[in-house]
Design brief:
Alpha-lytic protease prodomain-like, 0% strand, elongated
Length: 213
């Protein structure tokens, strides 16, 4: 009896209606994936045209962000709190990998400078990234709080920070218009630092869920 109580004692009453929770979790994950997928595709089309590192960093991150939906979706489908927590760790790893890639690209472009072209298009791509991430963040955060899912809350925080990162792409376009060739890779490096900070914050959120209940 006590073992059974212990097994469900940290669920906050959310595991019992687990089918409803699973459905709502999957809906939130799927909707955010659709929004971010469309955002990343739009940004890819622009990157092929303008070749901006700041945009590449943002775009890589958006694709990585979209991919974190896969383990989260599986966890909700399995209705497994343990799988959900592991998915949270995967989210943190995905954020870290995207930071490494963005940093590498920015340093490579500092060593071998190149002017981004079509600055108006680049600014528009940054604005698209901002909107897509902001919407995805809202979907994930609301669902994460409603379902008491640390992994979804971490993913929401990740997408919200990404929205601000996308605004840096707009800043890169403005810097380029002002003739600052180094602005693009330097903003790419700035984005890398932001992503590393998000990695740490998300790690603390997910780790808290492991030990908190």
């Amino acid at each position: 009896m006590s073992t059974h109580a212990h097994a469900h004692g940290h669920s906050h009453g959310l595991v019992d209606p687990s089918i409803k929770r699973s459905r709502e979790g999957l809906r939130a994950v799927g909707l955010a994936l659709l929004v971010l997928g469309l955002t990343a595709v739009a940004q890819t089309i622009v990157f092929v045209t303008v070749g901006s590192v700041a945009l590449l960093a943002d775009l890589i991150h958006n694709f990585g962000d979209a991919l974190t939906a896969v383990p989260l979706g599986i966890a909700f489908a399995l209705r497994s709190i343990v799988a959900e927590r592991r998915a949270g760790l995967f989210v943190v790893l995905a954020i870290f990998v995207s930071a490494c890639v963005a940093g590498y690209e920015a340093i490579a472009r500092l060593v071998d400078p190149r002017d981004p072209e079509a600055l108006g298009v680049l600014a528009a791509a940054g604005a698209v990234g901002f909107a897509g991430n902001w919407i995805a963040a809202g979907i994930r955060t609301r669902a994460g709080r409603a379902l008491d899912s640390a992994a979804l809350v971490a993913d929401g925080a990740h997408a919200r920070a990404d929205a601000y990162v996308s605004l840096a792409v707009v800043a890169s376009a403005v810097g380029g218009a002002g003739g600052l060739q180094a602005a693009d890779p330097l903003i790419g490096l700035g984005i890398t630092v932001v992503i590393l900070r998000i990695t740490w914050a998300s790690w603390k959120t997910v780790r808290g869920a492991h030990h908190g209940h």
